[in-house]
Amino acid sequence: MNAGKILFSGLVAGVILWVVSFGVSFLVQALVSYAPLQLPGMRSVQDPVLMLFFLYPLVLGFVLAFVYGKVKESFRNGVSFGLWMAFLFTVPNLFVIYSSMNYPVGFFASTLAGNFIGFPLAGLLLAKLQR
Length: 131
Fold this sequence. Notes:
Helices cover 71% and strands 0% of the residues. The chain is mainly alpha-helical. The longest helix has 29 residues, at 3-31.
């Protein structure tokens, strides 16, 4: 596996996930208003550690790039990889959040839509960049 390809494709995948996440969140909030930074359990906006929260799509992009490099022969294409990763990441994540926290429906809609749009797009790009 080429480390340069992993790093570059991970960065691109992370940026795609970040853009899709914020874009979908913006659209969902226009329909079902909620304040993500005021959800229970979130750090205060004055806490500098909260900035790390916004880097999570980049971290996820690097992880996806690494995993894709290891398993790409098992998938028809990058979109199928992305759909599987969306399912594996989203379903348990939302199950734990739903069963333990009282979050608004907008949070769940945003997460579900963002992940099932963003992960396949990231997978598509990973497939193109890791040829």
